[in-house]
Amino acid sequence: MTGPRYIHNLALIGFMGTGKSSVGRMAADALHFTFLDTDHVIEARAGKAISDIFAQDGEPAFREWERRIVEELTRREKTVIATGGGLPTDPANLASLKSHALVVCLWASPESIWERVKGHDHRPLLNEQDPLGRIRELLAAREPHYRQADVLVNTEMRSIREVAQHVIHQFHMAQSAHR
Ligand code: S3P
């Protein structure tokens, strides 16, 4: 790592369905931080659902939204940020998050992810003939990016509360180490 880090935010990265939003909300409550979900910010700014952005404007337009929001996050303090699953695949996004936040990746197997996301139809990347196959493929391609997180947390066999507690603990440790 180069230079000191000033960690005043907590960023959660990881694949769809790993619990970033639920864990993030719980951690924000416990830390008395603001909670922000990049997908929600994009929907509010664009004035339409993510699935409509993908369908009408294409995935590159959505990724451009993500880059713009990530840049703005550098000005935030005391914020827990839940990111869209594909956001850290742009190394510049990950580097930017690391400049102000502890980056924690939530991890789960493709099978658990599928169990958690099936029945929800708002994720355009999984509206496919073989969603489990697509999850396997995307997760394998993204794994090297997710592994760049400061902390990797396995969410298998753990409740949202347990994962949140673990994440909060890691955040406190990182803050005292970098103070
Ligand atoms: C995406 C994940 C989604 C959302 C978009 C693309 C991805 O967010 O950003 O559908 O590329 O993995 P969640 O991870 O919150 O589902």
Task: Write structural notes for this entry.
By secondary structure, this protein is of the alpha/beta class. The protein is built from 8 helices and 5 strands. The protein has helices at residues 20-31, 38-46, 50-57, 59-73, 91-98, 110-117, 131-146, 160-177, and strands spanning 9-14, 34-37, 79-82, 101-107, 151-154. A 5-stranded parallel beta sheet has the order 2-3-1-4-5. α1 (20-31) crosses α8 (160-177) and α3 crosses α4. The longest helix is centred in the last third of the chain and has 18 residues, at 160-177. It is globular. The chain starts with 8 loop residues before the first strand and ends with a helix. The model has no long low-confidence stretch (mean pLDDT 95). Bound molecules: shikimate-3-phosphate. Shikimate-3-phosphate (S3P) is lined by residues 16, 20, 39, 50, 84-86, 123-125.
Number of helices: 8
Mean pLDDT: 95
Number of strands: 5
Estimated helix fraction:
40-55%
Segments where pLDDT lies below 50 for 5+ residues?
A: none
List its salient traits.
five-stranded parallel β-sheet, 179 residues, binds shikimate-3-phosphate, 8 helices, 5 strands, alpha/beta
